Amino acid sequence: MTTLKPAAGPAPAPADGSAPPLVSVRDLTMTFPGKRSATGRRGAPVRAVDGISFDLAAGETLGLVGESGCGKSTTGRMLVRLLEPTSGSITFDGRDVTHLSQGALRPLRRHLQMVFQDPHSSLNPRQTVARIISDPLLVQGWAAGDARRRAAELMDLVGLIPEHIDRYPHEFSGGQAQRIGIARSLATSPRLVVADEPVSALDVSVQAQIVNLMERLRRELGLAYVFIAHDLSVVKRVSDRVAVMYLGRIVEIGDKKSLYEDPQHPYTRALLSAVPLPDPAAERRRERITLLGDPPSPAAPPPGCSFHPRCPKAQPLCKTERPALTVAAAGPATREVACHFPGD
Ligand SMILES: Nc1ncnc2c1ncn2[C@@H]1O[C@H](COP(=O)(O)OP(=O)(O)O)[C@@H](O)[C@H]1O
Ligand code: SF4
Ligand SMILES: [Mg+2]
């Protein structure tokens, strides 16, 4: 298999964290207008993402987890500027990209790429693989012959047979189609790839192969990933750090190992208690935390801590005061938690 070097890749971040972040997100918010009812009346606006902040270093993978509807995809789409944020800021490589126009974004697009959940529906069925993978290159002004050669190299890189370059998406399995989606995302040697549930639509047997491929590509190409998943088990494999979202907010963020070993937020604890353990004896012993009900609507979030109606530890204070994301006194210094009563 070929190993492609990044065209203008960054140096990996030094381990001491002294490099400036590749991506800096501050108080990022996305509010969608409320849906119209049958009578034409507009519902309350939906605050899909509600003031989130985090940094991502070059070459780092941040896992983004939380139940369906908590704002993961909206966050991902803002990061690659498929959506323009309502407020807050996104800095990429030191440059504020929050409200850049489409024209001003064009030269940056090559560095901001996305892999989608359903490979087949995200690939144009009427285009050949050659066309699909080379399209981002043609947009960047590559000559057709060079783009085709690069597409064939990328197919090899992601474990596809380059001779299949003139086939159409329906001729590939789900796992192979996702490899095409990954090849397309890598065509322009991006520095950030947002992968939005890239394995959720695939057979379990294929999921590990795609996760392994993405990990290898990150090592070889020095990419930074935001890896979105609705459960914590897939994210465990790939992430350096993990952010847990609930109703548009980050409720806990920290380095993966410590977060999995010692979750501080009751919501993280509940999500983790649902992840099956490989050791059957440990699986029998462990305590499951069942969350009551579904997440509330982001159009009408509960006051105070928005998790309080479902939280096994809720106190009266939780109903009135929204907890800020901070380093918990008793928790690890590398962890931030939004809870009045974190820990055990
Ligand atoms: N284009 C849109 N218009 C209106 N509401 C939206 C739009 N996109 C997402 N939402 C709403 O925003 C919330 C977060 O959605 P999303 O980011 O897709 O969550 P997730 O990816 O975590 O499942 C949901 O309530 C969803 O219905
Ligand atoms: S602030 Fe209160 S309701 Fe919210 S997670 Fe912490 S204990 Fe639960
Ligand atoms: Mg989503």
TrEMBL record:
Region of interest called Disordered, as start-end residue ranges on this chain: 1-22
Keyword set includes ATP-binding: yes
Protein keywords: ATP-binding, Nucleotide-binding, Transport
Bias (Low complexity): 1-21
SUPFAM superfamilies xref list: P-loop containing nucleoside triphosphate hydrolases (SSF52540)
Boundaries of every ABC transporter domain copy: 23-272
Record keyword Amino-acid biosynthesis present: no
Gene3D superfamilies with a match to the protein in the record: P-loop containing nucleotide triphosphate hydrolases
SMART domains the UniProt entry points to: AAA
Pfam families according to UniProt: ABC_tran, oligo_HPY
GO molecular function, one term: ATP binding
Name of the protein: ATP-binding cassette domain-containing protein
